[in-house]
C-alpha cells in the first residue's frame, strides 16, 4: 500500500464532510444522542473495518466517538484510509 503525498491528501480530504487531516492522520469526532447510539455506531463500523482488514484507532467517551485513521505499515495515509473514511461517512449519513 502506497503512502499518499500531502498534495493527494489535501485534495482527497475535500471529498469528506466529517473528516480533517490533523497530525498526519485522518480524524473525526462524532457526538451521538447517548452512549448506546455511539456504541451501536462503533459496532457497525467494526464490521466494515474487519471486512477491509483495516482497523481504526478510536475512543468512546459517553456519547462521543473519536476516530483516527492511518496505515501504520505504510507510514501514513493511504487509499485504504480514505476508503474506510468514506464507508464511515456513508454509515453516518444512513446510506
From TrEMBL:
PANTHER family: PTERIN-4-ALPHA-CARBINOLAMINE DEHYDRATASE. Keywords: Lyase. This is Putative pterin-4-alpha-carbinolamine dehydratase. Signal peptide: none annotated. It comes from the Bacteria. The keyword GTP-binding does not apply. SUPFAM superfamilies: PCD-like. InterPro entries: PCD_sf, Pterin_deHydtase. GO terms for biological process: tetrahydrobiopterin biosynthetic process. The keyword Transcription does not apply. It is an enzyme of class 4 (lyase). Belongs to the pterin-4-alpha-carbinolamine dehydratase family. Its EC number is 4.2.1.96. One of its GO terms (molecular function) is 4-alpha-hydroxytetrahydrobiopterin dehydratase activity. It catalyses: (4aS,6R)-4a-hydroxy-L-erythro-5,6,7,8-tetrahydrobiopterin = (6R)-L-erythro-6,7-dihydrobiopterin + H2O.
Amino acid at each position: 500500500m502506497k503512502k499518499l503525498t500531502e498534495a493527494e491528501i489535501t485534495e482527497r480530504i475535500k471529498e469528506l464532510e466529517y473528516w480533517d487531516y490533523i497530525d498526519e492522520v485522518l480524524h473525526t469526532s462524532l457526538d451521538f444522542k447517548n452512549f448506546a447510539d455511539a456504541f451501536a455506531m462503533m459496532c457497525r463500523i467494526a464490521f466494515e473495518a474487519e471486512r477491509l482488514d483495516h482497523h481504526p484507532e478510536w475512543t468512546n467517551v459517553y456519547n462521543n466517538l473519536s476516530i483516527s485513521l492511518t496505515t501504520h505499515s505504510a507510514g501514513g495515509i493511504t487509499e485504504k484510509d480514505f476508503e474506510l473514511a468514506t464507508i464511515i461517512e456513508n454509515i453516518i449519513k444512513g446510506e
